[in-house]
Amino acid sequence: MKLRSPMPDLTGATVWLNGEVLRNKLIGTKPTLIHFWSVSCELCKEAMPEVNAFRDKYKNELNIIAVHMPRSEKDMDLANIKKVASKHDITQPIYVDNGLILTDAFDNQYVPAYYVFDKNGQLRHFQAGGSGMKMLEKRVNRVLDEMRNS
């Protein structure tokens, strides 16, 4: 997915956990962070406390959505996804993507992966990997500052 691309529709989930989110409810409200993770990804689990701290810090300024991207058939077990999400305190809405519909729409190949969209739904930043929360925060703050100053 290229910078300035529009946010794909958030349709086609196998199931939503913690509440369903519609793209048209996000556009025009505030910036959005969409992060991809997987139950089989140790790096995702290691990064989750930082993601959760980030979620809590920016809860009033940023929409945050998790996308569970299976990396194998074993990762598609809904009971296990729920268990891991609960264990790692993933309380934001989770789009379970067992059909890889959103994964394909994003052309995403990595977990963890982070996509930052401005309030108009334009992709402003992408990064993959477990480290780099400082860079992610810097990019989110840039988008938030633009929104505050417009």
Task: Explain what you see.
It is a single chain. This protein has about 150 residues and is α/β, with parallel strands linked by helices. Helix content is about 35%, strand content about 20%. It is built from five helices and six strands. A six-stranded mixed sheet has the order 1-4-3-2-5-6, covered by helices on one side. Helix 2 links the parallel strand 2 and strand 3 (about 65-70). The longest helix is centred in the N-terminal third of the chain and has 16 residues, at about 40-55.
List the helices and strands and how they pair.
Blueprint: E1 15-17, H1 23-26, E2 32-37, H2 42-57, E3 63-68, H3 78-87, E4 94-96, H4 101-106, E5 113-117, E6 123-128, H5 133-148
Parallel strand pairs: 2-3, 3-4
Antiparallel strand pairs: 1-4, 2-5, 5-6
Number of beta strands: 6
Order of helices and strands: EHEHEHEHEEH
- Helix content range: 25-40%
Q: Please state the structural category.
A: alpha/beta
* Spatial separation of the terminal alpha carbons: 26 Å
User: What is the fold-level CATH name, i.e. the topology?
Assistant: Glutaredoxin
Number of helices: 5
**Beta-strand share of residues:** 15-25%
Main β sheet profile: 6 strands, mixed
Specify the CATH architecture: 3-Layer(aba) Sandwich
Annotated CATH homologous superfamily: Glutaredoxin
Tally of structural domains: 1
Widest sheet, order of strands = 1-4-3-2-5-6
CATH classification, class level: Alpha Beta
Alpha-carbon Rg, integer = 14 Å
Based on Cα principal axes, name the global outline: globular
